[in-house]
# Entry
Amino acid sequence: MTRSADRNHDITRVAVSTVIFTVRRTGDAISLSLPLVRRTRDPHEGQWALPGGWLDISESLDAAASRTLAETTGLQPSYLEQLYAFGAVDRSPSRVVSIVYWALLRQDDVDAQVAAHAAAGDAPENVAWFDATDLPGLAFDHNDIVDYALWRLRNKVGYSRIAHGLLADEFTLAELREVYEAILRRRLDPANFRRQAEGSGTLIPTERFRTGSHRPARLYRYNRDVELADHGPLGVRA
Amino acid sequence: MTRSADRNHDITRVAVSTVIFTVRRTGDAISLSLPLVRRTRDPHEGQWALPGGWLDISESLDAAASRTLAETTGLQPSYLEQLYAFGAVDRSPSRVVSIVYWALLRQDDVDAQVAAHAAAGDAPENVAWFDATDLPGLAFDHNDIVDYALWRLRNKVGYSRIAHGLLADEFTLAELREVYEAILRRRLDPANFRRQAEGSGTLIPTERFRTGSHRPARLYRYNRDVELADHGPLGVRA
DNA sequence: TCAAAAGTGTTGCGTTTACACCCATGT
DNA sequence: ACATGGGTGTAAACGCAACACTTTTGA
# Structure
C-alpha cells in the first residue's frame, strides 16, 4: 500500500461486476433472486455489493466477468452478456470505470452449490441471496445497476428464449411459464403460452413426465442448436 | 513520453470512440455515411479509424464521448448512446479498453459544418466521410465495431423513432421514409408508413409544405415531449 | 392534360387474446 | 367422484401488408 496506492489518485482503474439472476421458490410462488457480497473494506465497508473485481492486464472483459463470478459463486452461468459500462466520476472515491455484465444461473446449479458448501462446511459468510425486487441499500451505484439489469432481462425475455437459462435441463411448460411470470410480473394464459413455446422451435419434448401432483406434465428440453448465450458484437465464443 | 510511456506496458488505459451516422444524398438515393479520422501515429498510422480519444481522469464516459466528438467534428450529435465496451487483450499493442458510443447527426448540421469549414478554409485534412456499408480496412477492430453499430441502429429503428435524429427540424414523410429505407435496406409502402408514423404520436404536422416537385408535401416536426436521446440506465441527462 | 408524388380507403392474412372445453391423475 | 392442473379447440380482436384509388401540383 505504498506507491501503487498513492498512484490510484491519478489513474483510472477498470473493474468488472456481474448481476447474477436466478429463480427461487418461496412458498407457492417463485421469485427472481441474486447473490450479493458483503464488502470487507472501504469504501462502503459492511454494505452489500455486486460480485466483481479488478480487470487483469492480460484477460479480456468476458474472461474477467467469468473469473470473478467463479471466485464468488463457484459456478458457470448459463448465460452471460455485457450490460453497460458505468463511469461517472463520483461513483467511487477513486476513479473507477466498471464494466458490468449480467448473467443467468440454472436453478439446479444453485442447489448443487448450496449443498456442496453445506457438506464442506465452508458456506461463505460474505455471500447472501436477495430478492431482486426487494434489495437493501447497496454500495456504490449498484441499486441503479440492478434496476437496469432487471429492465434488460424483462426486455430480452420478450423477444428471445433466454428464460430457459434459469431452469434445469428438463422442465415442464408450467415451470417455464412461472419463470416468465416472475420476470414479467404478470400472469400468462397457460394455453397460449404453451402454443407459443411449442411453436418457437426451441423446445424438444421428451418422453419423461413430471409426476407428483395431478395429471403428469411432459418434460421438455432446450434445443441447444439455437444459441442461448450472447456472443457479443464480435461473435466470439468466450 | 518518458515515464508515462514506459508505464503503458503494465497499465490498462480507457479510451472512448464514437460511431457517428448521418445520411447523405448521392444522386436520387440516400445512404448512411460516417466520418473517420486518419491516424497520424502508430499503431496503424495512415489507416482510417473512428474518432475518439483517451478518457480524462475527471470526466464521465458520456462527457468524454461528447468532447472527442466535438474535437473532431465540431458538432453536437442529436442522439448519443453507449454501444459496447471492447476489451480484447490483443486489440491494440498496449492494453486498451474502449468504451464505444454511437451517435446520430442531423443532415442540416452536417451541411452547416461543411460550409463553415469551407468558408474558414480550415477543412480538416484528416477527416473524411465514408459510406457506412462500403468501408475500407480500418485500424484496430473498428470494422467490427461499425458493423455492430449498424446492427444496433437497424434494430433500434424497428422499435423506436430515433430516425428523426438524422433529419432537419422539419421534414416530409417521404424524407423520413427514405431514411428508414436507407437504414433498413428495403422499400417501405408509403401509405402504410404514413399511417404508422402519424399514429406513433411523435410527429407534429405543421402548416408548411415542401414545394418544388409535384404535389406539395406537408412538413412535420418531431415532438420533443417524447424523449429522443437515451439517457442511459441511470436516467441522467448529460 | 399528363406524369408523378401526396394522401385515403379497403381487404385479406397471420398473430395474439380470451375463454370454453376435454383429459388424466392423486387423494 | 372430484378437484386440479395438463392439454386442445375456437372465435373475436388486432396489427400489418398489399394494393386500388383519389387529390394536387409542376411541366
Remarks:
- Residues 142-159 of chain A form the longest helix (18 residues).
- Helices of chain A lie at 3-7, 61-73, 107-120, 142-159, 173-184, 190-199.
